[in-house]
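Weekly modeling sync, notes
Attendees: S.R. (lead), two postdocs, one rotation student

Agenda item 3: backlog of single-chain predictions. S.R. asked that every request posted to the team notebook include the full sequence so nobody has to chase files. The rotation student volunteered to paste the first one in as an example of the format we agreed on. Action items at the bottom.

Example entry:
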Amino acid sequence: MGSLPGAKPQPEQVNSTESQAPITKSQVEQALWVAFCGALGGGIFWLLSKWSGTATFAYWKWYGQIVALGFLGGIAALFGVYLLTASNLNAVKTYIFAIVCGVVWQPIINTAIKSYSNVGVTRQVAQVSNQTDQLNNTADHGTQEQIQSAVKATVPAVTQALKQFPDVQDADKKQAIVDSSDKALVALQAAAVKAPDSSIQAIKEVGIAANESNHADVGIHAIHSLREIGMAGARSNHPEVTKATVESLKILALSGKDPALKGAAVASLKELEAETNK
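Predicted structure, as returned to the notebook:
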């Protein structure tokens, strides 16, 4: 037991100590002072709103208003100092900033919530990209069973990202969801060469998720992917593949909320019908 500390290289020992360092009493005191300054800012907000005749929580007793605004101010200060900025907790200006955060508590809290939401979207987009890369690699070198497994692993990541789309406010994050979903659809279509059944099912699920999240562009991309798979099946004498794509397109046509999405599904069905009747 006594030889274990000496066996570890010095850099690893330092990193381990830093990552597992407990919260100190000094850090707790600093956080409490930040929250107190924010609460003080919330009290200042109460005074300003009282003087301007635009009291927040107007139906509450005055002391209830002060307590509520002090709490919100404290939360805003903690968000502003610890989450939104890299503040030096040994500097007086940090605590002045905490008071300001308490005064303007509402936009600070809204910004913090938005920031947290964006982190979740970024993580989900990264998961979609990772699954798509794995699917592409498996489609190039894997067996049919491995490709089917990779397809099934990709779908939940894409559909979860699309479900977040309506709640995302940042335009860049919205575009990131669209781009990652489009790349996943390209990979799923390519996987259909070796694993058509699972790929068709997966693309249909992505199309349904895009429809439910009111994003017609991704839904139309899913429809076009199904059409191309169906066309390839008809031309290579695989009617079972074409039949599966037709069934999926019918579901998307019936469930489509957006007229453009529904129209694309109907048009693709007609093209497949024409191709099979040649």
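Discussion: group reviewed the output briefly. Confidence is low (pLDDT under 50) at residues 1-19.
Action items: rotation student to repeat for the remaining queue; S.R. to check formatting next week.
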